[in-house]
Amino acid sequence: MGEAQQAADLFNRLPNVDKKSTTGQSLSGQLWMIEEANITAGLQRLKETILMNSDNLDARFDCAICEIAQHNTEQGLEYLFYIQKNNADFKDGIAKELIITIINALSNNDPQKAQQYRSQLTSIMAV
User: In sequence order, which residues have a C-beta less than 8 Å from that of residue 7 and are 6 or more positions away?
Assistant: First the structure.
């Protein structure tokens, strides 16, 4: 059993009140990100795909998931902002939803960085 699965199993044993707390929701989001990253082609292969076709939004989205799962939030957001800027309707606006989720998560620990990303999102949407 992998570490991600062990973490998910431990999380699932928590009382519901703990799962619904701010920390619990954050952990749940991190576990989801790791699970999603594990079903992608892998970061290196995805980056190679983007090198061959820079407009491959599926590869960019999966790269974002992988980067964020590895705590490379800034790199992950770069991929998401690219998607938002070039095709806001991609997968029913998933890039914007994920950007907002990440901004909200950052607000607690790094409000200045969260505001920077919020401003960047607003400027993209205004165009």
Answer: 31, 34
Predicted TM-score of the model (pTM) = 0.89
Backbone angles phi, psi at 38, to 5 degrees: -65, -20
CA angle 99-70-89, nearest 5°?
25
The string of pLDDT tens digits covering residues 30-80 is: 899 999 999 999 999 999 999 999 999 999 999 999 999 999 999 999 999
Instruction: Supply 72's token pair.
Output: 């490379």
Q: Can you tell me the distance from the alpha carbon of 25 to that of 23, in angstroms, rounded to the nearest whole number? A: 5
DSSP string, 78-121: HHHHHHHHH-TTGGGGHHHHHHHHHHHHHHHH-HHHHHHHHHHH
CATH of residue 110's domain is: 1.25.40
Structural domain that includes position 12: 1-39
C-beta separation of 44 from 36 below 8 A: no
